[in-house]
């Protein structure tokens, strides 16, 4: 700062034009000339800076930060300005953005007031309001650390548990917020907890730090109220951010390509690779976040697609360079490096879920076999590498220690995760096998439990059910798959060690069990249902055919003599049963068949029942003819039996008895038995026939 080299360099970068940068040996006069050439600030002149007045220099630096960081970022949020100022127009901002190209940076009056208000509004509407907290300023409102967490939560909700945050101490919250922001969101750690956990935190420091969130994550899709104010303004922020990222990625790609083509030693190339990989990792999370589609159809915008395309090229080029560096090592280390690259790719490979679960399971099975074949050589390669690592050379050829250390770290990662990776792959294969069986059962059930058609179509459904469920032993297949999956799930959850992952696995198993419990009951009942429909079609068809033929004959018989009608309609009870069976079967089919067939059945039953009703009213007296004949026979047989028994009893009175005590006693006992039996027979006769006397009187 004393020679103004730093200030001049910073301002050279930010100013709209370039100007000479003095070296340390230049005179103070030149320093003053340089400052006077470009700095036009009230109450700050070039001599104050040249004299090294700390308060003036710090004020200048804060002004530069306000102008070229906070103000520029907040100026891209016109809807926030509209909330705090009645003179701004969102519509004019949108039209201006769409109609004119970006202009050069200009200094805007009243920077501090507008920038501070806009940044505060951004925090209030994107984070604080959703978290249910109040942020009034950039001072004490941030001391507890809750406000910092609310900003992180608005960007990545899964990173923060706001309920836990509200119950912790200030220092714990602040430290965790700064750590999460740095490691997960790529926000530089400009603050320490002790800087904020004071009575009067420094507003400028907090504003500078929060501006980093706005710079990296200006997306306001999660702010419902602001979307309601103007949904059309959101794409502007996306385009601005994506435009900057696209410029960065393209420049990164050019630098990467130029460095790869430059002549250098293996060690120098590896150092260059590490430099680019660090930059790549810093930007990776941010870029992967912004190229996620926010549209309902899942498609990317043009700007997102361009950034993604450039990012994919960079990623591919960086990976290829890493692979090249590994393979370029002297044998056998080069071979080991190539294997290590493939092993890393295997254990880090993401499963792409296919449209059909069975396709996913088959794909995982193929990859699992490939990965098993690849990883079976891990011990041999690791042992050979450890010997090279200790010697730091291959056959006398030295190898960069940093590259060996990097490979050792990667070997440890592959060795520690390979077993878990294979267990996970086995679990996922079985998981999707089971899901494919569930989906098959559900889809088939939907095709079986429908409004049915004619008998032939129902017969085809039954044959399909037998083929899919019974011939393929579907229930046995499901049970075997489930039991194997259950063991694989237990092994994977145990090896993983993550409580959350174990809960997810058990949740899947429990939900699957409950789903199958209900589904299996329905699937098992399908056959009996289909068979019942077919049986009712058979019953309906046969009764309709026979009843139609009988009605034809019966209607002709109405004009015949009485004895002929009596003889013809003596079987009317049988046709009553047939008529009832026809209606029962028809009504069942009306309820279970589709609308067209139900309508045809209703029409047919209406016609047949009309003919039946008209005929039955004329011949219903014949319905009990057979019953009368049976009852007459029963009556006459009973009377004859009773008469015979009475005659037999009366005959005993005419038989002479020798007078003796024993003979008289036996005679009296015989008469008592006969009278008792006669009374019993008479009682039975009366109890049977008296309730039916109306019918017998008719006879």
TrEMBL record:
Domain Calponin-homology (CH) residue range list: 113-218
SUPFAM superfamilies: Calponin-homology domain, CH-domain (SSF47576), Spectrin repeat (SSF46966)
CDD domains xrefs: CH_SYNE1_rpt2
Name of the protein in question: Calponin-homology (CH) domain-containing protein
Organism: Gopherus agassizii
MF-aspect GO terms: actin binding
Top-rank taxon, per record: Eukaryota
Database matches in InterPro entries: Actinin_actin-bd_CS, CH_dom, CH_dom_sf, CH_SYNE1_rpt2, Spectrin_SYNE1
Keyword Coiled coil (UniProt): yes
TM annotation in the entry: 13-32, 53-70, 673-690
Record bears the keyword Magnesium: no
Subcellular location: Endomembrane system
One protein family per Pfam: CH
Coiled coil: 485-512
Keyword terms: Actin-binding, Coiled coil, Membrane, Phosphoprotein, Repeat, Transmembrane, Transmembrane helix
């Amino acid at each position: 700062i004393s020679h103004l080299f730093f200030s001049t360099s910073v301002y050279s970068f930010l100013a709209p034009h370039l100007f000479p940068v003095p070296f340390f040996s230049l005179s103070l006069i030149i320093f003053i000339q340089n400052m006077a050439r470009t700095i036009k600030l009230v109450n700050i002149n070039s001599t104050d800076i040249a004299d090294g007045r700390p308060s003036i220099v710090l004020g200048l630096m804060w002004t530069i930060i306000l102008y070229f960081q906070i103000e520029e970022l907040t100026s891209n949020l016109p809807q926030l300005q509209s909330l705090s100022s009645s003179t701004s127009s969102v519509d004019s901002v949108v039209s201006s953005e769409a109609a004119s190209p970006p202009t050069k940076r200009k200094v805007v009056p009243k920077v501090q007031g507008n920038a501070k208000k806009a940044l505060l509004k951004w925090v209030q509407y994107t984070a604080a309001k959703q978290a249910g907290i109040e942020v009034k300023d950039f001072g004490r409102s941030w001391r507890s650390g809750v406000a910092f967490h609310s900003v992180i939560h608005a960007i990545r909700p899964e990173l923060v548990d706001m309920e836990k945050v509200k119950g912790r101490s200030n220092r714990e919250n602040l430290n965790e917020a700064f750590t999460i922001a740095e490691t997960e969101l790529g926000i530089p750690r400009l603050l320490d907890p002790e800087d904020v956990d004071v009575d009067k935190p420094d507003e400028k420091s907090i504003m500078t730090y929060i501006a980093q969130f706005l710079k990296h994550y200006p997306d306001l899709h999660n702010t419902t109220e602001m979307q309601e104010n103007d949904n059309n303004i959101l794409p502007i922020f996306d385009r601005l951010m994506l435009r900057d990222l696209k410029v960065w990625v393209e420049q990164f790609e050019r630098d990467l390509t130029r460095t790869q083509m430059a002549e250098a030693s293996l060690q120098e190339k590896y150092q260059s690779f590490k430099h680019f990989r660090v930059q790549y990792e810093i930007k990776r999370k941010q870029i992967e976040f912004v190229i996620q589609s926010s549209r309902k159809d899942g498609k990317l915008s043009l700007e997102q697609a361009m950034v993604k395309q450039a990012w994919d090229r960079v990623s591919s080029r960086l990976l290829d360079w890493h692979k090249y560096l590994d393979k370029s090592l002297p044998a056998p280390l080069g071979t080991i490096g190539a294997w290590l690259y493939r092993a890393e790719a295997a254990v880090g490979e993401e499963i792409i879920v296919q449209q059909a679960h069975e396709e996913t399971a088959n794909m995982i099975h193929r990859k699992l076999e490939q990965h098993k074949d690849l990883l079976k050589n891990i011990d041999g390669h690791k042992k050979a590498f450890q010997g090279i690592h200790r010697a730091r050379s291959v056959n006398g050829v030295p190898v960069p220690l940093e590259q060996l250390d990097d490979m050792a770290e990667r070997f440890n990662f592959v060795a520690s995760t390979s077993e878990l990776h294979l267990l996970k792959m086995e679990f996922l294969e079985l998981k999707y096998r089971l899901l494919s069986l569930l989906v098959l059962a559900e889809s088939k059930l939907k095709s079986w439990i429908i409004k049915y058609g004619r008998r032939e179509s129902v017969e085809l459904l039954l044959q399909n059910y037998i083929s899919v469920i019974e011939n393929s032993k579907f229930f046995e297949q499901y049970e075997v798959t489930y039991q194997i999956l259950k063991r694989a799930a237990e092994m994977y959850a145990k090896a993983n060690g993550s409580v959350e992952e174990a809960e997810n696995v058990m949740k899947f198993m429990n939900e699957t069990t409950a789903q199958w419990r209900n589904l299996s009951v329905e699937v098992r009942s399908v056959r009996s249902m289909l068979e019942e429909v077919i049986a009712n079609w058979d019953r309906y068809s046969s009764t309709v055919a026979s009843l139609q033929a009988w009605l034809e004959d019966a209607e002709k018989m109405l004009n015949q003599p009485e004895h002929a009608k009596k003889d013809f309609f003596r079987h009317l009870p049988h046709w009553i049963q047939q008529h009832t069976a026809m209606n029962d079967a028809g009504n069942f089919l009306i309820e279970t068949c589709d609308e067209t067939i139900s309508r045809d059945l209703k029409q047919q039953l209406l016609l047949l029942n009309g003919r039946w009703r008209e005929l039955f009213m004329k011949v219903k007296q014949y319905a009990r003819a057979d019953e009368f004949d049976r009852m007459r026979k029963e009556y006459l047989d009973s009377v004859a039996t009773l008469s015979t028994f009475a005659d037999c009893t009366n005959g005993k009175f005419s038989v002479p008895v020798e007078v003796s005590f024993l003979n008289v006693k036996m005679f009296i006992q015989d008469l008592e038995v006969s009278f008792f039996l006669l009374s019993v027979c008479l009682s039975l006769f009366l109890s049977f026939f008296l309730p039916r006397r109306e019918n017998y009187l008719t006879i």
